[in-house]
Write a structure and sequence with these properties.
single chain; 160 residues
Length: 160
Amino acid sequence: MFDQLMQYASVFFCSLLPLLELRGSLVLGFGLGLPWYGNLAVSIVGNLLPIPFILLFIRRILRWMKTVSFLHFDRIATWLEEKASKKSAKVTKYALCGLFAFVAIPLPGTGAWMGALIASLLEMRIKHSLVSIALGVLVAGILITFALYGSATLARLFFL
């Protein structure tokens, strides 16, 4: 019981991390042998938890980071803004649907964190952005879960 709780905690904390997010946590949970429904639920909750805070505070944080050269915060802030600007063209054209699609398509460099950064820099309404991002995370989670657990089930059926 304690072991499984620790496994779920690992998945949860993995889903909070900006580079790993939902995709990494689902793979981790799959590797740990967690059931798909628990893995998916914990990964989605963990991935969505920081999003309202990002939407509310990221512009202020980036503005502050640009004034601080300690640990190259100024360069990191500029890099993040440039990366978000490059990806924002896809989102700007279709607004909230574009934000949803950007988050929902499970490709490298897309996801809830980057979607929230783009929405914030484009000054999209927080309430609408949050709904688009949450739906995108849900769809991405379902796609990745189906790919992981479905391919494992097919492999067992055909090769074992």
